[in-house]
Amino acid sequence: MSDWLQIDRPILPPASCILCGGGIGGPVIDTRRDIPLLPDGGRVYACRTCMKLGAVLFGFAPGEALDELHEAGALLEAVQAQIEEHRELHAQSEAAIAELLASLKERDEELELAHGSVAQLQAALNRVREDTMAQLEAVAPVHGSPMESGSPMEKDDYPTEEDA
Q: What are the backbone angles phi and psi of residue 39, rounded to the nearest 5°?
């Protein structure tokens, strides 16, 4: 098993490919080996281009197939980025849904209170209606009950202060 690593960019001097000497801005293979090329030593890195050329020369992968694999790797990275973006959107959506559910619960509680108030008002209205009907029935026998005759009371049928 190799202890080589693929890293995003070189971090130790000379920060260049040991094979082509080019400056490296992208992913590289870090061989985790140091050689005393510089006074402070040097880490052995290999760039993607040199590794690809070596693989083709050794027959590990034909050029076109290796290109397809390279493109597939780039596509995989793009898809992984999209997946991460969708995860973030999903988390935001879940937070928005939780907020909406809390708002709905609050409105349901307000609606319950309103229904309770309506029921109380309806009960009070029924009591007032019963009291009024009782008062009308108490007065009606003196002057004839409009309830019994089926006709509404005329203006003259209402009790006046003189009748009392």
A: -55, -35
What is the token pair recorded at 8?
């995003």
**pLDDT interval class at 118 (50, 70, 90):** very high
Q: Which of 45, 60, 75 is the last residue of a domain?
A: 60
The predicted-structure confidence for 122-148, as pLDDT tens digits, reads as follows 999 999 999 999 988 888 665 555 555
User: What is the total count of domains within the chain?
Assistant: 2
Q: Is residue 78 part of a domain?
A: yes
Q: What are the structure tokens assigned to 140, written together?
A: 């009606």
Query: What's the whole-model pTM score?
Result: 0.38
Q: Evaluate whether 4 touches 32 at the Cβ level (below 8 Å).
A: yes
Helix (H) or strand (E) holding 151: none
Residue 140 and residue 146 in contact, taking contact as beta carbons nearer than 8 Å? yes
